[in-house]
Structure formats: structure tokens, C-alpha cells
Amino acid sequence: MGLLHDGPKTGGQLVAEAGERFGAFFSVTRSQVYRELPALADAGLLRLGKQGPRSSQQYVLAAAGKKAFKAWLLSQPGPDHLRSPLILRLVHAGSLTVKQRAALLDTARASYSADLDAARAAVKAADDPYGKAVAEFGLAHARAALKLLDAIPTG
Predict the structure, then answer these.
(1) What is the pTM (predicted TM-score) of this model?
(2) How far apart are the first and last CA of the chain?
(3) Same domain, 6 and 70
(4) CA 26, CA 134: separation in Å to the nearest integer?
(5) pLDDT tier at 110, thresholds 50, 70, 90
(6) Would the N or C end of the chain have less CB density within 10 A of its end CB?
């Protein structure tokens, strides 16, 4: 619902914007978005906007949705839980051969190097202090992951 504060959007636009704004630390799938939009509309939190090309449907944040979103923002978030498939594999990396471990590290290093580049661009592109702070977190996360990978013995 937070992505609809800026105006009406289609499911595809929401998926794209979610990837840009918080994809580095919170994943949103296309199927999840397209499943939730009608449910939120049925609950009165969203209303249908204009019909777009190729039968795309815009959604608009309703007054009840603004109120529910604000209540969610003000609620306690609870503890963060890091669920990293990479870290889980690294915990067990001693069970791999040297070649397998090197391949795992190389693949992860390439991925986090790309994340680092994207995070640097996001920091530069951030136009508000909140977005910039989140982008800097993404940058620090990518750097920390690369540091972790450098600490894993390959031999």
C-alpha cells in the first residue's frame, strides 16, 4: 500500500517499483502482488482505478487503506530475521570440495558485486533522506556480504 501513496499504479508498475525501492532487502514476487491487490480491494483498502492497455488494472489507495497503512507504520515491527540462502550454504561450506566452494564463492561474489554497483547508484539517485538512508543500508549490506565472502577459506 505504501507504493500507492504516490498515485495509482498497475500490478506491473508496483512490482517494478518494489524491486527498485526495496528489492535489495525485501523481495516481492509478481504472483504475490497480483494475489494481494484484489484481496486488498475486496477489503476496501484499495479501489479500482483506470483500465489500462492490455487489460491492465490500476489500483488506487482508498481512505481506509491510508489509515491501515499508517497504523501498520506505527506498529512495532518485531525482530528482523535474516534468511539468507547464501549464509546457510556458507555455514556448511566445509562439506564442499575446494572446487565446489570456489564456485559458490565466485558466483556469490559476482552477485554481490552487482548489488554493490546497484546500491551505489541507488544512493546517488535517492531524492529524499529516508530513501537515501535505506539505499546506504543496501550499500553497507553488499559490502558486508563481500567482506564475509573474502573471509571464507577457499582451500
Answers:
(1) 0.74
(2) 48
(3) yes
(4) 11
(5) very high
(6) C
Nine-digit cell string for 54: 492490455
What is the CA 92 to chain-centroid distance, rounded? Answer: 26
69 phi/psi in degrees, rounded to 5: -65, -45
Rounded to whole angstroms, the Cα distance separating 80 from 64 reads 27
Domain hosting 89: range is 85-151
Shared domain check, 69 and 96: no
Average pLDDT value for the chain = 90
Q: Which of 74, 99, 133 finishes a domain?
A: 74
- 55-85 per-residue burial string, b: 16 or more CB within 10 A, e: under 16: eebbbebbeebeebbeeeeeeeeeeeeeeee
Number of C-beta neighbours around residue 15 at 10 A: 20
Indicate whether 80 belongs to any domain: no
